[in-house]
Amino acid sequence: MNFVLLFESIILIILYMTSSRPFDKPIPKSPESPYPIVTNFCDIVSGFGRGSAELGIPTANIPIDQVPNAARDLEQGVYFGFARIESIDKEERIEPRENHRNVEYNYGKYLEQSNGDFDILPVVFSIGLNPFYHNKHRTLEIHIIHEFKRDFYGAKLKFNILGYIRPELDYTTAEALIADINKDIVIAKRVLDTDDYKKFMQVLL
Ligand SMILES: Cc1cc2nc3c(=O)[nH]c(=O)nc-3n(C[C@H](O)[C@H](O)[C@H](O)COP(=O)(O)O)c2cc1C
Question: Can you provide one Gene Ontology molecular function annotated for this UniProt record (predicted)?
């Protein structure tokens, strides 16, 4: 690829990542009712495993019956907030999954303080039926914006939901879904880095 073309492509990608989409909801300067919604520590369970394998965007699945009604009742969509993981002391086990990709429940044993794994971290949520995958039951999935070295199924997660970004959408390609999730991540990071949102990290201590 020649340099002019490469440069133009980079500019287009930056423009796409920073421009707002028609379906984005304006995000208020600080959280407005019903936010913040704060949970207790919930179990991190395995989903279908497509987040990591097909999208390259791993998500922690939370049993919907463990979250407060206020979170359960939210409209389908993409949300943002903060989360904190706690490991638990339990024997590791392997759980077979329908798609034959086994899940290692290690309860967070391999997480590292020095890697910031136990910090209060920014997150994006998908709440709903994942129209792209035609799920039958409502799920609450969390992508934690952090580089983990290992999975942590079985660990506990406490989180707050601080705002809404957009509705869940259907897509014709996985690439389009990935591009939108990456844009959600950019939006969440930008908002969560402001003082009015950062102060909601404290409730997770
Ligand atoms: C921030 C974020 C936004 C998402 N937006 C959508 C969406 O608009 N439509 C959709 O079908 N799935 C959406 N998803 C869900 C992905 O499809 C989901 O993570 C994927 O199905 C993996 O789920 P699994 O690990 O249970 O297999 C989103 C996920 C995240 C983390």
Answer: riboflavin kinase activity
CA 36 to CA 186: how far, in whole Å? 20
Instruction: Give the tens place of pLDDT for each residue, 55-100.
Output: 999 999 999 999 999 999 999 999 999 999 999 999 999 998 776 6
Place of tokens 């909801």: 25
d(CA 159, CA 180): 23
Q: Which of 141, 147, 168, 175 is catalytic?
A: 141
Q: Which residue has the tokens 């939901």?
A: 161
Expressed in angstroms and rounded, the spacing between residue 4 Cα and the centre of ligand 1 is 35
What separation in Å is there between the alpha carbon of 113 and the centre of ligand 1? 28
Is 141 tagged catalytic?
Answer: yes
The fourth-level CATH superfamily of domain 31-204 is Riboflavin kinase-like (2.40.30.30)
Mean pLDDT over 49-55 rounds to 84
Instruction: List all residues whose CB is within 6 A of at least one atom of ligand 1.
Output: 47-51, 55, 59, 61, 78, 124, 126, 130-133, 141, 143, 168-169, 177, 181, 184
